[in-house]
């Protein structure tokens, strides 16, 4: 994994040193004298980089639009531990806590640190990155104005260029530095995030196209459509294909698919196909960690797409979340069943086994809670989700001869429940 570190020399070297502790990380130093140079460093470095690590929010904000789309970018924030260390250095020199002018640090961290140390009666000034970017010269002027007006006694800056300018003018200034633990924690988060992205990019993705004839069945038109879909896969998805009856399956990876579809926003190919009036094509896309799960998700997605009168596209990912119809303003996402798949599968199996045993298809929340030994609230959530997925439907209410509000009566489609439980 290639990691470019963007920052001033002393802090950049510290980050590079800590990054070298991690196995498999190729560290590329991109050091500057002032944060304003960071965009040019990114623009001039022509080699591919997996991630950029910035020494702080200022160089990150300046260089953000120059970072290639293929690379991730993170900055190391100035957190509570960094402020604690700064305050300790100030106290060691002054034997008290003077009024300080800060820059770039997050105000929430300042408030928290001051509250925890009973310093809330001591005022401070802050220009954070949320107040808008100021270059190093402007920050110097900001701090000096406060100092000249005797509003502050000490300056604490996060920018090395500002620190050097103020120090050269014999101004009471401290440089806020990241602690090693702050740097290491941020690097761990960034590396784990990158590994997760790489893992997802390699997930198997199945695109299942179902071709339907409108009116007279034109075998030649179907044959040409199958050829067109296969060529599309070979040219853009670098995929293998399989043809069975009127269904063409393309097998690729998530990374390639996301790139071709521009992060699931461009489905002009399926739109172009469906402009041909003699045929209708539905597309189901399945993403999974295994071939079995990707195929299953693609088939389920195709069933949703096929229920549409017009050619449409649906996707189901590895978390059993469905998206669609893709490429339209009406596109939405929702869980196919439940998010906690393992626990819910066991619950649905218990529910199916109990219903099969007692030969019931019409139930209430009370029936479910007693039958599988759970609370009525949990039973209600199960039935609501099953209704959302058309595994169950409300068919009526209990009679009014019982106390309390009459409960809904649900009809359970046992065949669909069996399928959902497996």
What would you say this structure looks like, in words?
- By secondary structure, this protein is an alpha/beta fold.
- 44% of the residues lie in helices and 23% in strands.
- The chain is built from 16 helices and 18 strands.
- A 7-stranded mixed beta sheet has the order 10-11-9-12-13-14-15. It has a 4-stranded parallel beta sheet with strand order 2-1-3-4, sandwiched between helices. Strands 6-5-7-8 form a 4-stranded parallel beta sheet, sandwiched between helices.
- The chain is elongated.
- Mean pLDDT is 87; it is low at 338-342.
Keywords summarizing the entry:
422 residues, 16 helices, alpha/beta
Detail the topology: elements first, then pairings:
Layout: E1 2-8, H1 9-19, E2 26-32, H2 38-44, E3 51-54, H3 57-63, E4 72-75, H4 80-94, E5 100-104, H5 107-116, E6 124-128, H6 136-148, E7 154-157, H7 160-168, E8 173-175, H8 180-201, E9 204-213, H9 219-237, E10 240-244, E11 247-253, H10 254-260, H11 268-273, E12 279-288, H12 291-306, E13 313-316, E14 321-324, E15 332-335, H13 341-358, E16 362-363, H14 365-371, H15 376-388, E17 392-397, E18 408-412, H16 414-420
Parallel strand pairs: 1-2, 1-3, 3-4, 5-6, 5-7, 7-8, 12-13
Antiparallel strand pairs: 9-11, 9-12, 10-11, 13-14, 14-15, 16-18, 17-18
Helix pairs in contact: 1-8, 2-3, 6-7, 13-16, 14-15
């Amino acid at each position: 994994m290639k990691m470019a570190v963007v920052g001033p020399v002393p802090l950049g070297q510290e980050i590079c040193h800590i990054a070298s502790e991690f196995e498999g990380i190729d560290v590329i130093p991109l050091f500057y004298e002032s944060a304003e140079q960071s965009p040019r460093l990114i623009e001039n470095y022509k080699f591919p980089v997996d991630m950029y690590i910035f020494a702080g929010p200022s160089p990150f904000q300046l260089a953000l639009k120059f970072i290639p789309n293929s690379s991730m970018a993170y900055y190391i924030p100035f957190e509570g531990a960094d402020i604690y260390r700064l305050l300790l250095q100030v106290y060691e020199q002054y034997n008290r806590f003077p009024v300080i002018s800060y820059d770039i640090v997050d105000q929430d961290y300042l408030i928290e640190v001051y509250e925890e140390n009973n310093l809330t009666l001591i005022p401070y000034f802050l220009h954070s990155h949320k107040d808008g970017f100021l270059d190093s010269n402007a920050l110097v002027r900001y701090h000096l104005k406060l100092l000249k007006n005797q509003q502050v006694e000490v300056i604490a800056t996060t920018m090395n260029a500002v620190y050097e300018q103020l120090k050269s003018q014999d101004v009471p200034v401290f440089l806020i530095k990241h602690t090693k633990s702050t740097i290491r924690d941020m690097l761990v988060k960034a590396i784990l995030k990158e590994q997760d992205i790489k893992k997802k990019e390699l997930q198997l993705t199945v695109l299942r196209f179902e071709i339907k004839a409108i009116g007279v069945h034109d075998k030649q038109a179907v044959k040409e459509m199958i050829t067109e879909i296969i060529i599309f896969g070979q040219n853009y998805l670098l995929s293998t294909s399989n043809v069975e009856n009127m269904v063409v399956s393309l097998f690729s990876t998530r990374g390639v698919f996301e790139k071709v579809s521009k992060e699931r926003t461009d489905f002009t190919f399926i739109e172009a196909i469906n402009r041909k009036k003699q045929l209708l094509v539905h597309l189901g896309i399945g993403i999974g960690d295994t071939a079995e799960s990707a195929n299953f998700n693609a088939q389920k997605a195709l069933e949703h797409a096929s229920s549409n009168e017009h050619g449409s596209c649906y996707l189901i990912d590895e978390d059993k979340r469905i998206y669609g119809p893709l490429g339209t303003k009406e596109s939405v996402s929702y869980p196919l069943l439940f998010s906690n798949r393992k626990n819910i599968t066991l619950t649905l199996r218990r529910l199916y086994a109990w219903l099969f045993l007692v030969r019931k298809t019409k139930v209430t929340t009370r029936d479910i809670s007693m039958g599988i030994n759970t609370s009525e609230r949990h039973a209600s959530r199960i039935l609501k989700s099953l209704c959302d997925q058309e595994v169950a439907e409300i068919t009526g209410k209990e009679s009014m001869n019982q106390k309390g509000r009459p409960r809904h009566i649900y009809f359970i489609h046992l065949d669909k429940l069996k399928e959902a439980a497996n």
